[in-house]
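seq:
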Amino acid sequence: MYEKPKLAFELDALEPHLDKENLDIHYNKHHTAYVTKFNAAVEGTEYADKELGELLKDIDGIEGDVKIAIVNNGGGAWNHSFFWSVLAPASESGEPSEGLSSAIDSAFGSFEDFKKQFSEAAVTVFGSGWAWLVKDSEGKLEIMKTSNQDSPLSVGKTPLLCLDVWEHAYYLKYRNLRPDFIEAFFNVINWGMVSENFSA
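struct:
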């Protein structure tokens, strides 16, 4: 049974960049729904006691209707849990580690170029989905987009950072202005956690 992690910060701790009302609905309603539906889908199956991340990594080996539930609801549960982990109040967001900073410069030219490319990926996700900073099996960084609740885990990538660009993530505060939401996100990135993800 998959359990939603507790937030490492209070619901109002990301203000004014991510507002309390939207975060409350996002975490307590949307994320909870993904977790509940995933657990219901795998209950009584061979997948019930398996680690969710491992299921997503091996998604091609799963067949039948349960595969759809694992991709959609399991992906939604895992993606959101990961998203919360890479957020922190602006005063605690920190900076990329030296190793991560060097890797970003090597892959994208500079941090500012990385920010521009990541923001462009997030802006251009068509419909609902996610923008990600990931590393491949050789440790090289890249930016990718996924639709709906698809996960980089399912294509052999290791997530380091992500941004949820489903409308439910930002619409109460930012309405249709997704670029403003993306700009605000850069104020509340937990660079300590992103750096740990890179080093793992």
